[in-house]
Amino acid sequence: MRVGLVCAHADPSRHAGGPPVGTHQHIARVAAELAGRGHDVRLYERRDAPDLGATETVDGYLVERVPVGPAAAVPTAELVGCVADYGRWLADRWADEWAPEVAHGHYWVGGLAAAHAVRETDIPIVQTFHSLGVEQLRRLGARYGAPDERIPLERALIRAVDVAVAQSNDEVDELTRMGLQRISVALVPPGVDTEQFHPDGEAAPREAQPRILSVSALEPGHGQEDLIRAIRMVGDAELVIVGGPPAERLAGHAEARQLRELAERNGVADLVTLAGAVPHEQLATWYRSADVVACTPRYASAGRVPLEAMACGVPVVGYAMGGIADAVVDEVTGRLVQPGDVRALGVTLRRLITDSAGRFAYGHAAVDRVRCSYTWERTGAALERLYERVARCRTPVEAA
C-alpha cells in the first residue's frame, strides 16, 4: 500500500518551535515500521534549512522536504499561513507519478495540509493529533500558549477526516465530544522500542540514596513543581529531572530558574538535580538508574515516558489521566494518583521508595505489560489494518 505521512514541521530536535521531539520520533518510527511491513511510505515534512536535501531515504521510507515558507525554523503560529501552499504542493506531487492510497496527517497543521491536498480526490485521510488544543486549554488554563486559530481549525479538521487516531482513552472521549462518531475514532497507542528499552544494561551513575526520576520538557504544565513540593514528604531520596536544554544552558532557562527557586523555598534544593537534555538513545540508562519514575504532567495524550520506564523494569507513579492512566495499571505496574494532589503524590512516592519487594513486583509486571501490549509491531499492525479499512471505503472528503 502507498502511504503518505504528512507533518508540517521538520525534525524539531535541531531547534525549538516545532512539536515535541517525542512526536517526531513517533512519526519516524511509524514510517519505518510500515516500510518494514512492505508498504511504500513517504514522509512529508517542511524544508526549514537551505542546506537540507529535497529527499532522503531513511529506514526504508522516503523523506520529502516540502519547500514552502521560509527556509528557517518558525513557530507553529507562522506555519498556519503556509498550509494552503503546503497542500497545493502535495496535490501537485500526488497528481504526478505517485499518489498515496491513504494520507495520514500528524499534528493539527500537518492534518490541515493533508486535507487541503486531497479535497478534490477520493484519497482518504487518517489523522493523529498527538494533542488537542481544547483539552490542553482546559487542563493548562493560563499556561496554554497555542495559537488562537488552533482550536477552531482542529474542529474543522475533524469534519474532514475519515478516521482520527487517538493515543489514549481520554483522547477518544475528547474526539467524540468534539463531534466525531465513535466509529470514526481508532485507539492506537504508541509503541516502545523494546530492543532499546529493557531492564538489562548499563545504568547512569547515582548516589546511594533512592532516586526518583522525571523525564519531560522543562515547560509550564509538565508538573515538575508538583514533584518538588512532594519530595519533602518522601524523606531521604533524590529527585532527578531530565529534560529541557543541555545542562550547560540551564542557567539561562526561565523554567529551570523557577524550579530551582521553588526547591530553595521548600528547603529541598539539595535533593533536586536538573540534568538537562539527554539524547534519546541514552534515556534507557537513566530509567534503569531510578527506583521510581514519576510522571506528573497536567496533560499527556500519550504515555511515552511511563511506557519506556516500564519497559526498563521501573515502576511508575503518575497522574491518573491520558496516556499515563492507560499505560500504568494501578497497584500492578505502579501507582496512580489524582492530578494535582501533591500530598497523595508525596505519600505514594514515600511508600513505594521504602517497599523494595513492591517495586520488584511492579517492575516485572511492567516489563510484561509493555512486551505484550505496547510494541511497535503491534502499533504498525493496527495502523496497517486501519489503512486497509479506510482504503476500501473511499469517499470524497470535505475540505477543512
From TrEMBL:
Residues 206-357 form the Glycosyl transferase family domain. The keyword Transferase applies. GO terms for biological process: carbohydrate derivative biosynthetic process. One of its GO terms (molecular function) is glycosyltransferase activity. It comes from the Bacteria. Pfam families: Glyco_transf_4, Glycos_transf_1. Residues 22-196 form the Glycosyltransferase subfamily 4-like N-terminal domain. Keywords: Glycosyltransferase, Transferase. PANTHER family: SULFOQUINOVOSYL TRANSFERASE SQD2 (PTHR45947). This is Glycosyl transferase.
